[in-house]
Design a protein that fits this description.
Oligomer: heterotrimer
Distance between the termini of chain A: 56 Å
Distance between the termini of chain B: 58 Å
Number of helices of chain A: 13
Structural class of chain B: alpha+beta
Shape of chain A: flat
Helix content of chain B: 40-55%
Chains: A mainly alpha, B alpha+beta, C mainly alpha
CATH architecture of the largest domain in chain B: 3-Layer(aba) Sandwich
CATH architecture of the largest domain in chain A: Orthogonal Bundle
CATH superfamily of the largest domain in chain B: Periplasmic binding protein-like II
CATH class of the largest domain in chain A: Mainly Alpha
CATH topology of the largest domain in chain B: D-Maltodextrin-Binding Protein, domain 2
Strand order of the largest sheet of chain B: 2-1-3-14-6
Strand order of the largest sheet of chain A: 1-2
CATH class of the largest domain in chain B: Alpha Beta
Number of helices of chain B: 19
Strand content of chain A: under 5%
Order of helices and strands of chain A: HEEHHHHHHHHHHHH
Radius of gyration of chain A: 26 Å
Structural class of chain A: mainly alpha
Number of strands of chain B: 14
Helix content of chain A: over 70%
Largest sheet of chain B: 5 strands, mixed
Largest interface: A-C, 120 and 124 residues
Strand content of chain B: 5-15%
CATH topology of the largest domain in chain A: MetI-like fold
Shape of chain B: globular
Number of domains of chain A: 2
Chain lengths: 308, 452, 286
């Protein structure tokens, strides 16, 4: 009896242990990321939320007095905030789909099996590597109506030069062009990797079944790519929402406020005007909106993934 | 004292004198030794002073100015960290408000002194403490009033001018001659200038296409662009704020000045509406524009340095901006040397900027690095290089104009916030999104709230 | 050489189609590289030759901008700092991020999905709002101006990206892979590192290149968190562009721009071989 009980207990304990070890090993995958991000982000986010509801004291860089929604009221009352939101929306609506479609399209093109493929892939990342300040400057040089090569070429073709950075619509177009030039390579990079890692046997089987390349693209490749296309979109979306360096370098947010995207405005309010509380209030608003929209995208992704 | 008097009775006058001299010498020597240990370092224990400065000149100072300074003060090691201009204020603020700041010396742009002083980051350079460390020969009265005032806030002197600058008018004389227009004199008015401008938009090589324009300057959305408008307004007797510190620019003079700034675009190169400091500089250096309103310090790179400019020294004139009803225009931009109020090396820090702003340091600075001086004596002396001669004449004219018309940005702890609002509304007007009156009305309302 | 799977039918269909495809791909590459070509060209010009009308194609090239800027101590020190920080944060984020991505894609873990989404959503905070409080924390801990501070700060935005991208890659893998491995007696870790990692090499390496590039060019955190000893190249570039004494020196900017591009391109080219190698290995094992 006694020995049996002991054995039973051992068994139970070892089962608990195994379950525990199993749970531990599962969590160990999530652990490092969660710990680093928790440690690094918890306070900064708390701080931002706190000062957004407070009077900010520059002498100590801290909140001194709880003033409720006052900073938010200031921000919502400022037409510049609303116009920045509008500008950001326009930029996102044009830039994001363009980059995703161009990126996957080009990835499909350069993934053709030939000797130079690796080199082309590697060269394609260069636009991403050029520092935003330099990228903005090079494009200014290229697009400048006076000494830019683009307008020189347009001029050779007999057209009047375009004032890329003087006209509000063209300035936005210039920002979209520069941003697309910089970030399409990211989509290409991820997309080529995704195409490379598709399992070959499925295609071989389909080929034996006599499927043509279009139906294979449509019914095998794209469904397999859905998670990665969605992930690329979400990553690009989160990056694009925060874009301000290109606008700063190429148009200074002008003319008027035509390219003053919301993150540029937040940056200027904090770092130039030293209005950290108002800037924090805007940051919180942007955070909430981004969370809601990202949530919608993730929900859509889930639906797509389930369907495929 | 009484003991000396007693002694005087018994010892000879000569012996007494000798004793007194040696006592003084001892005191002086002892004092210096003690001071060296606290404040200025010894060869064994040098003092390290750290400075935060604009990246644009930090490297030049580190490699050229610091060695020169060390000839006079070998035991103070100066390390200069450069930060890009647009982030320098925020970065200085973040550091200076900490319990033990990294930087002993903060190089602050013209409108930043009130902002830094208000948070208690700066030391009073005329306090008793600082006065004890100030050289007897350091002549405060020798500074021009306008640049010295940049380092002052609420009656306290927090900074001294280290790199003085003024918004000035650059003239490409060759393009004036080509157009058959007389080269501007220092007393040219806005009416005369604008009357000449259309003739300066010209085709210089006869191919039927306009290839030279009258003007380039700041038009883009950026905080320094409104300074051009402000200069036009100031020279016509307008001002940014009234004596109660409320916005006073929303007047007919202000509106007319804004219209004038926009009118300049008609005589400026294609695309100039997105031009600022660098772009107008490039256009001028390429010989594309007859005049440029820009900071005087760019003279060397625009007229002398062959690597950066296509122009020759005798081709380039420099003077104050055209005159309005109140006289010629200028706008002040002074880099101030300030000492952190929490620094542990205040004496050494003050010694560094004291040396650089002294007669001797300033003369070296302008002769060797082409930096503009703030002292009357340096400006009046014969410059070491020939090209500085006409530049100094123009600079003195600009100092006087700035002093007379209070031609500087808003002096207030939230000066940069106000300047950003001006930049935003100014840019909307330039882009044709709103009218001049509306732009100034919106700016005035917003600025009144910010300064409140 | 491995072929992208769905190339096979296309290749069979027409040789011409493939040639057109390659030509179009190369053309796209040339278009995207033109501004880079312009940058490199400008870096060999004197400043006065950069802004001419019409643009100058023939000029006396000068190496002077390179020499004068490389001699400036802060450029080479900052280049080394940039390499350290980019490599450090790239590696740390790929390890932590890939594991988290795997947890999200493959491991049934109550609450992990929520944590994953929270991690991703944290990316919605504008970076400016994070930079200041991070500086305040670093200052109170006395760790400003250190590489590790910058590396950890970069990980906050790299890990969520890596995690989400790798989740996408892992989801595309057949489930049977690690199931069979675990039946064979591999632990969960063993299955991940021995089976999943090798076969996900293209995705892992591409994602790592992406995160290193993000760290390589990051300006705002570098500006706020460093002063001197850990200062990076983007800070130097911002300084040259915002030169308030002589105007933006585009000769120097394009030269420094070119210098910063070279190491990354070389790295990407090297990794390219390894990538295909890794894929081949993974394929045989899988």
């Amino acid at each position: 009896m006694r020995t049996m009980t002991a054995a039973g207990a051992r068994k139970v304990r070892s089962r608990t242990w195994t379950t525990l070890a199993d749970v531990m090993s599962r969590w160990a995958f999530m652990g490092p990321a969660a710990i680093i991000l928790g440690a690094m982000l918890a306070y900064p986010i708390f701080y931002t939320v706190e000062i957004s509801f407070s009077r900010f004291d520059l002498m100590t860089f801290s909140a001194v007095e709880w003033i409720g929604w006052e900073n938010y009221a200031h921000v919502l009352d400022d037409y510049r905030f609303w116009s920045s939101m509008k500008v950001t929306l326009v930029y996102l609506v044009f830039a994001l789909p363009l980059q995703i479609v161009l990126g996957f399209g080009i990835a499909f093109l350069i993934n053709a099996d030939w000797r130079g493929r690796g080199t082309v892939r590697a060269l394609f990342i260069i636009p991403m590597v050029v520092a935003p300040v330099v990228a903005g400057g090079i494009w200014r040089m290229i697009l400048d109506p006076l000494w830019g090569i683009m307008n020189w070429l347009i001029g050779l073709a007999g057209f009047a030069p375009l004032d890329w950075f003087g006209d509000p619509n063209l300035a936005m177009a210039a920002i979209v062009i520069i941003d697309t030039w910089r970030w399409t390579p990211f989509v290409v990079l991820i997309a080529t990797a995704a195409l490379l890692s598709l399992p070959r046997d499925i295609f071989e089987a389909a080929e034996i079944d006599g499927a043509n390349w279009w139906s294979m693209l449509w019914s095998i490749t794209l469904p397999l790519l859905v998670p990665i296309i969605a992930a690329t979109f979400v990553v690009r979306w989160l990056g694009a929402v925060k874009m301000f360096d290109i606008a700063l370098a190429a148009t200074y947010g002008g003319p008027g406020g035509a390219t003053n995207v919301i993150n540029l405005f937040i940056y200027e309010e904090a770092f130039r005007s030293l209005r950290f509380a108002e800037s924090a209030a805007m940051a919180v608003i942007v955070l909430v909106l981004t969370m809601v929209l990202t949530g919608i995208f993730l929900f859509g992704t889930r639906k797509l993934e389930e369907r495929c | 004292m009484s003991r000396i008097h007693e002694a005087a009775g018994s010892v000879s006058r000569r012996a007494l004198m000798a004793a007194a001299v040696s006592t003084v010498a001892m005191a002086a020597f002892g004092g210096t030794a003690a001071r060296a240990q606290d404040g200025l370092g010894t060869p064994e224990q040098p003092i390290e002073v750290r400075m935060i400065a604009n990246e644009a000149f930090a490297n030049q100072w580190q490699t050229l100015m610091v060695p020169e300074f060390n000839k006079a003060y070998p035991n103070i090691k100066v390390t200069i960290d450069g930060v890009p201009y647009v982030e320098l204020l925020a970065k200085s603020m973040l550091d200076a408000t900490g319990p033990s700041p990294t930087y002993d010396i903060i190089i602050a742009d013209d409108p930043w002194v009130p902002q830094l002083a208000e948070v208690g980051a700066l030391m009073d350079l005329k306090s008793a403490e600082a006065a004890a460390w100030t050289d007897a020969g350091y002549d405060w009265d020798d500074f021009n009033a306008a640049p010295l005032a940049a380092g002052e806030w609420k009656g306290v002197q927090y900074g001294v001018p280290l790199r003085s600058n003024m918004l000035m008018m650059f003239v490409n004389k060759a393009l004036y001659e080509k157009a058959g227009v007389p080269v501007p004199t220092p007393d040219i008015t806005w009416e005369q200038y604008l009357a000449q401008a259309p003739k300066l938009v010209q085709d210089t090589n006869g191919d039927g296409k306009v290839d030279a324009w009258a003007i380039d300057t700041y038009f883009v959305r950026e905080p320094l662009t409104p300074t051009i408008w402000q200069t036009i307004m100031n020279s016509n007797g307008g001002s940014l704020l009234d004596e109660n510190g409320k916005p006073a620019f929303n007047t007919e003079i202000g509106i007319a000045a804004l219209e004038t700034h926009k009118k300049l675009l008609e005589f400026a190169p294609t695309g100039a509406v997105s031009h600022g400091f660098s772009e107008s500089l490039q256009a001028f250096r390429q010989g594309l524009v007859a005049t440029m309103f820009n900071w005087g310090s760019v003279y060397k790179g625009s007229a002398i340095d062959e690597k950066t400019t296509t122009l020759k020294p005798d081709q380039v004139g420099i003077q104050a901006l055209p005159a309005g009803s109140g006289g010629p225009g200028a706008h002040r931009g002074i880099w101030n040397g300030t000492v952190s109020s929490k620094s542990e090396n205040k004496q050494a820090a003050w010694t560094v900027i004291q040396w650089l702003s002294s007669k001797e340091g300033e003369a070296w600075h302008s002769a060797n690095l082409g930096v503009f001086p703030a002292r009357k004596s340096t400006l009046a002396a014969k410059p070491s290089v020939e090209w500085l001669g006409p530049v100094f004449v123009g600079l003195q004219q600009a100092y006087d104009a700035a002093e007379k018309g209070k031609m500087w940005r808003i002096r207030h702890p939230r000066s940069d916030a106000a300047q950003q609002i001006l930049a935003d509304e100014h840019s909307r007007f330039m882009a044709g999104q709103i009218g001049a009156a509306e732009a100034l009305q919106v700016a005035a309302d917003k600025i009144e709230k910010v300064l409140d | 050489m491995t072929a992208a799977a769905f190339d096979a039918p296309l290749r069979r269909r027409s040789r011409l189609g493939r040639k057109v495809r390659i030509a179009a791909g190369v053309f796209a590459c040339v278009v995207f590289l033109f501004p880079v070509f312009w940058m490199v060209l400008s870096s060999f010009k004197e400043q006065r030759d950069i802004f001419t009308v019409p643009p100058t194609l023939f000029f006396t090239p000068t190496l002077e901008t390179y020499i004068s800027y490389m001699q400036r101590a802060d450029i080479s020190r900052r280049l080394i700092n940039t390499v350290i920080v980019a490599a450090g944060s790239g590696l740390l984020s790929i390890v932590a991020g890939a594991m988290a991505g795997y947890a999200l894609a493959r491991i049934k873990l109550r609450g992990a999905g929520t944590i994953g989404v929270i991690i991703l959503l944290s990316r919605g905070v504008p970076p400016i709002a994070l930079a200041v409080p991070m500086f305040l924390v670093a200052r109170s801990l006395g760790v400003t101006d250190m590489h590790i501070t910058l590396i950890l700060a970069y990980c906050t935005f790299l890990i969520p990206y890596v995690m989400w991208l790798m989740r996408g890659f892992f989801l595309a893998l057949p489930k049977e892979l690690e199931e069979s491995a675990m039946i064979d007696g591999c632990s969960r870790f063993g299955a991940f590192f021995k089976i999943i990692v090798p076969i996900s090499m293209p995705g892992l390496l591409s994602t790592m290149i992406f995160s290193m590039i993000l760290a390589w060019e990051e300006l705002l955190f570098a500006l706020v968190l460093t002063n001197r000893y850990a200062s990076t190249i983007p800070v130097a570039i911002a300084g040259i562009a915002g030169d308030t004494v002589n105007g933006a020196n585009w000769g120097a900017l394009t030269a420094v721009g070119t210098i910063t591009v070279i190491p990354v391109v070389v790295f990407a080219l090297l990794v390219q071989k390894w990538l295909i190698q890794g894929l081949a290995d993974g394929a045989t094992k899988g």
